[in-house]
Design a protein that fits this description.
alpha/beta; UDP-N-acetylmuramoyl-L-alanine:D-glutamate ligase; Protein-Tyrosine Phosphatase, Chain A; 7 helices; 11 strands; globular
Length: 252
């Protein structure tokens, strides 16, 4: 880094920077650092926080992609803008609120207003840790609401190796709709089906269906908050699920 530049490094990172003279070093983090967040609020499908800089504060930032890790990501992005010397609070709020992230990474497909408004969130999560994090994020955004998770396992080998982890993650939901495995490039493995996940899920309301039944099943389950997840072709059905939900809303 050239003299006159600045390094922004995560608070607590096990790395000791050795910049040349004239390079300033700043820290950032969730709750501490030169740049950090305060007054973090979750609810109604939103995460809001106040951005704190060494001599500046921007209140009430609404994350466009409301997942926990994006609080720190947002702080880092705002820190970089701050260090240009040209960070305007109103433009910062607008930019952070309008950033929707990549497709199928915690993507809202339906977000109705009001305390009883329904939501559909689509996520690429295809590993137990990813799925657990996504479910945790949705529950934090909508505390007290019933969460339905529609999950399509991806690959026979991944299902075989992580069945217990998938079941543990899915058991955090109030209702689970599990489809058959999306095979992608793999041939079937004897004894490996979605049932090895299904049998381990501990939540009371669960169903095991074919992919072709998904739109109808979701339409009949009277969901409040729906998370669709998986790396297979479940993504191709989300539009149909969303349209069905809108039709039901129009009828009611």
């Amino acid at each position: 880094m050239q003299p006159g530049g600045a390094l922004v490094i995560h608070e607590g990172l096990k790395l000791v920077p050795r910049p040349q003279d004239g390079v300033k070093v700043f820290s950032y983090g969730l709750h501490s650092g030169d740049f950090h967040a305060e007054n973090i609020r979750h609810g109604n499908g939103e995460i809001r926080f106040d951005f704190v800089a060494p001599d500046m504060r921007i209140d009430d930032i609404n994350l466009g992609v409301p997942v926990e890790i994006n609080i720190e990501n947002g702080v880092a992005a705002l820190a970089a803008c701050y260090l240009t010397g040209d960070l305007e609070p109103d433009k910062a709020r607008e930019a952070m609120g309008s950033f929707m992230g990549p497709q199928r990474r915690f993507e809202f497909r339906l977000k109705e207003s009001g305390p009883c408004g329904r939501a559909i969130i689509d996520d690429y999560a295809h590993h137990p840790d990813e799925l657990k994090a996504s479910i945790g994020s949705v529950k934090a955004l909508y505390p007290g609401r019933r969460l339905t998770v529609a999950f399509q396992p991806h690959l026979y080998t991944r299902t075989r190796d992580f069945a217990e982890g998938f079941a543990e993650a899915l058991s955090l939901a109030d209702e689970v709709i599990l489809t058959d495995i999306y095979p992608a490039r793999e041939l079937p493995i004897e004894g490996v089906t979605s049932k090895i996940i299904y049998d381990r899920i501990s939540c009371e309301k669960k169903s095991l269906i074919s992919r072709e039944e998904l739109i109808k099943t979701v339409g009949n389950c009277n969901f409040e908050i729906l998370l669709t997840a998986g790396a297979g072709d479940i993504a191709d059905l989300v539009e149909g699920i969303t349209e069905e939900a809108k039709k039901q809303n129009a009828k009611s």
